[in-house]
Amino acid sequence: LFDVKASIQATEFLLKTTLHVLENDSFNKRIIRACEFFVPNRIHNVVGAIYGLHGLPLSPRELIDSAESTAVTPAVLGSTYSIE
Q1: Taking a C-beta distance cutoff of 8 angstroms, is the pair 15, 34 a contact?
Q2: If we measure between CA atoms, which residue out of 27, 31, 29, 51 comes closest to residue 39?
Q3: Confidence at residue 7, expressed as pLDDT on a 0 to 100 scale
Q4: What is the pTM of this model?
Q5: ∠ Cα 23 31 22 (to 5°)
Q6: Which residues in the chain come in under a pLDDT of 50?
Q7: So what's the pLDDT on residue 84?
Q8: Is the backbone of residue 13 left (phi > 0), alpha (psi -120 to 50) or beta?
C-alpha cells in the first residue's frame, strides 16, 4: 500500500483528468474530486485501486444517546419484518 501525495497539476497531468475543489461551508469541509481518470499503461498492472478521488463524504451526524435507542432483538426484527 502506498500513500502518494502530488500537486493538483501533477495529478491532473498523470491521470489525464480535471480535479475540482468542492466546499461545504455549513460543515467547514473542503475536498478535491476527479471526474474520469486514467491510470498510465506503464503502471496499470501494479495499481489495484486509487482512493480519494471519487465520492462525497457523509455529513456529520448527531450521535444518538444509547439511553434513547431501542434494543434490537430477534423478537423486534421478527415483528418489524414479519418473520416467523
Answers
A1: yes
A2: 51
A3: 93
A4: 0.61
A5: 35
A6: none
A7: 78
A8: alpha
